[in-house]
Structures
1.
Amino acid sequence: MDANADDDGTHSELEYPENRQNNVEEDYSEENTDETSISTESTFDLTLPATHSYLGHNLEELRGRTILDDGLYVNLPLLVKQSVMLFPGQTLPMTVFDAQTIDMIRTCIENDRTLGVVCLGYDKMVPIGTTAEIYECMYDPDQGFRLKAKGRQRFKILRVIIQGYDKISARVQVLPEITLGPPFLDERIASLDHIRIHPKNEEDFKKQEKVENLDAVVTPWPAWVYRQYDPLRLSLKIRQRLQFIESKGSSIPEDPSDLSFWVAQNLLLDDNERIVLLNYDCAISRLQREMKYLVEDNVFVCCNCDSYIGRQSHMFPMSKEGPQGTYCNPSGIIHETVTLYHAQGLALSDNPPSINYTWFPGRGFIS
């Protein structure tokens, strides 16, 4: 376990699967979590971690963007990583040293710069993944192949093709992202269109409810049933629950689809729960499930001894992209990190803080 040493609080980078989340019924509110006031002022630039500058400032920028057609069948080179679940919109930093993977990446760059990222579970490879488009890269014989990739589209594996040691590709189908409009769109009373509004806040939704109640008169179900499937209303509820993160400087997407993927990558979830979210083909289903996770206020525990570490509500962002980030160390191992206000049960070594390959510029790590 690594820890980010800072005078402003305790910042713990907890790795999966070594640390998992678990719902517990015990009340941990009295366990060394003093409710002292925490200063909200910070001089740390939240835009720096998102640049992954520890990979170097000489990476070559690759121009253009590749979008695969929905439903397309295509052969993709696969990057299979232990407990790394990539979502559309998420940044994946990497340092690669083995020759097979470097050859695969070079081939990708020469073509459409797109590869498939798949999570390797405890016993098998997950049959669903996300395409990753390489947008910056640089090769150095001493430092390996350094690159940054962005998650783009979901895909389903149809057939795995093993081409040699540690060189895998697959026949995949690009999965569509289904976008549904307002639930009353097809059954609405057209004569009320002139008083409809595009809700942006809770007050607007209350005004819109009066119109929806009239629309529901000609439908089999009351209006409250349809409101459960309104992507804009679901997005507002989730954003309200995430105000404690947004108020600290993180940018939370407003688009329902982008928001659903953002929440999936930033919430305290284990691999199985993330797989379920990645399987959904509609933002509404993802947002509904994510709302349940937000209500639960899950906790961090050690997977070996079940020792309590911290709560989901104790998270705060050290990056503009959100409270949980994906980072790469000098050995090429990818870590998912989260920073907490309160943490306990941590065992730190006596080693001095190191700034080598530091994920948060200006901060040192104690390992």
2.
Amino acid sequence: MADETLPNGRVVRVIGPVVDAEFPPDGLPEIHTALRIELRLEGETRVVTCEVAQHIGEGLVRAIALKPTDGMVRGAPVVNTGSPISVPVGEGVLGHVYNVLGEPLDTSPENIHAADRWPIHREPPPFDELEPKQVMLETGIKVIDLLEPYVQGG
């Protein structure tokens, strides 16, 4: 959800999935922040979510679009969400298929009972909190399981 106090920007360049957007110098979104661009094409409205990948100077950020940029034009308004892309986590998300934005593809969002939402970029857990496992991952392919067994979790 966009914070009304965050300054919005505008699209200045689109090359495939790469979108350059201009923001006020004092209101540049941080790296990994989600940006929303609303497109109107042939009477249809689509929202393209982008993730800030780089600050390129002079109030410009370079973002990667996570959906097709067809119909995106220079000057289109860019909304700074102020937060990174996050995905649902917890027991309620198991057994479903999601896109990169954490939206379910096989059911409606109302049917998902996630315990929480976590950002896709976060710090790894401290090394001393990791619990190594010695459980073999069965691939179902006998040759691989025999000659090169894999341990669960990497």
